[in-house]
Design goal:
The chain is α/β, with parallel strands linked by helices and about 425 residues long. The chain folds into 2 domains: about 280 residues, TIM Barrel (Alpha-Beta Barrel), CATH 3.20.20; about 130 residues, putative tagatose 6-phosphate kinase domain like (GI Alpha 1, domain 2-like, Orthogonal Bundle). The protein is built from 14 helices and 12 strands.
């Protein structure tokens, strides 16, 4: 698994247009659709968990790192997917979850967390200590961030059976873990190449000072901002003037690439362009649960238009989100009408935090069952789902998935397909 990631990075640095998709989600259907697609294309895939999603306290999923690995592995083995093709990644691993506490307290908890991630089998480790803790600025300086990252790396090295299997990602010019940026209409600033180089140097120096010089060879990626981003109701596309200038920041750092976060919702060509600039890792998450929700609501819409008796799923989801507003309230702004719209259709897709609620699971099953049992004319399906969905859904049906479930999985796969490409000539 380590060899897969590092080989892709070496190929990218050698000028080949290669990159790996990194699926950051704990939704079972997103993971199933992603693994099915990787299996179909015979491609490796990164599956990531974030620190607020999975940690020693359970995170918002209720899973500790070992639980998450078991969860993904069970899905993979259920479809006969070769688990050697999965690279498990830990994203934004640092003190963020506990940043309301003093720095030393938060860092002590972060140490426990990263050790659990490594022992569970995560090998792609994003060390992110950029956010300040109690009494500190919102963003700490490079030296503090790098020093704390090195401290956590030392814990990872100690926890690993084979430290050389670890690959570290550093830097974090991205939104906070778990979502899109809140300053919705401010222009996105791309990372200054000199600043990118300085961040790498600071981390190499910090690893030396922490007494883990050998681990410097395991720093394989720097998270920077190429200008791709999204907010609740807006997508920032890769700037047309993007050049190789940013890639030049990697000169002298053999085996190090860039990692791009928030690549959701971009045009397909963008992933090829990002790889050309030096981004060998493309992280995606909300766009996949957005596709899941989109397909479910489409099924719901069909049932309603044909006057087929069922319980509308959007009504139930609205009730859940109003009863527990902690996952969306601070992320969405505007009138009550706009808030209702964003709760269901936002690019930030905060609704994704509610799908594992038992009431939501039951509602999804009811909609799928109603759609499967209904006699729905093909022209109606074609009105709501595109031809590419139909083609993919038919393939999934032949693999044994019920018709409505196949439509949902196909929609997720369509959002992920552009991330899988082999060369400059075209997408998979």
């Amino acid at each position: 698994m380590t060899d897969i990631l590092r080989q892709i990075i070496r190929d990218n640095r050698a000028g080949q247009i290669k990159a790996l998709p990194s699926v950051c989600s704990a939704h079972p259907d997103v993971l199933l659709a992603s693994l099915l697609l990787a299996q179909e294309l015979d491609q490796p895939i990164i599956i990531e968990a974030t620190s607020n999603q999975v940690n020693q306290d359970g995170g918002y999923t209720g899973m500790r790192p070992a639980d998450f690995v078991d969860f993904v592995t069970e899905i993979a083995t259920g479809i006969g997917f070769d688990t050697k093709q999965i690279i498990f990644g830990g994203d934004h691993l640092g003190p963020q979850v506990w940043r309301a506490q003093p720095a030393e307290t938060a860092m002590a908890k972060a140490e426990i967390m990263v050790a659990e991630y490594v022992r569970a089998g995560f090998t792609k480790i994003h060390l992110d200590c950029s956010e300040g803790c109690a009494g500190e600025p919102a963003q700490v300086d490079d030296e503090t961030s790098a020093s704390r990252a090195a401290r956590l790396a030392a814990v990872c090295e100690q926890a690993a059976v084979n430290p050389d299997a670890l690959s570290y990602m550093v830097g974090t010019e991205v939104p906070p873990p778990g979502g899109a940026r809140i300053a919705e209409h401010e222009p996105v600033q791309t990372t200054n190449p000199a600043a990118a180089t300085a961040t790498l140097i600071k981390h190499f120096e910090a690893f030396d000072l922490a007494g883990i010089s050998a681990a410097k060879n395991r720093i394989v990626a720097l998270v920077v901002q190429p200008g791709v981003e999204f907010s609740a109701d807006h997508i920032d596309r890769l700037p047309a003037e993007s050049t190789m200038e940013l890639r030049a920041a990697l000169a002298g750092f053999d085996g190090v690439c860039f990692e791009a976060h928030s690549t959701d919702y971009q045009h397909p060509q963008v992933y090829h362009d990002l790889a050309k600039i030096g981004f060998a890792i493309h992280k995606v998450g909300p766009a996949l649960t957005f596709a899941f929700r989109k397909a479910l609501y489409a099924l719901d819409d069909i049932l309603e238009k044909l006057d087929i008796s069922h319980q509308p799923i959007a009504t139930g989801m609205e009730k859940l989100m109003l009863e527990n507003d902690g996952y969306w309230r601070s992320h969405y702004h505007g009138s009550e009408q706009n808030l209702r719209f964003l709760r269901h259709y936002s690019y930030a897709d905060r609704i994704r935090y509610y799908w594992t609620n038992p009431a939501a699971i039951a509602a999804v099953e009811r909609v799928l069952a109603a759609a499967n049992n209904a006699d729905i004319p093909q022209p109606v399906w074609d009105q709501v789902f595109c031809a590419r969905n139909k083609e993919r859904a038919e393939r999934l049906e032949r693999a044994g998935y019920p018709f409505a479930k196949a439509k949902v999985l196909a929609e997720i796969q369509l959002a992920l397909v552009p991330y899988f490409f082999n060369n400059a000539q075209g997408l998979a």
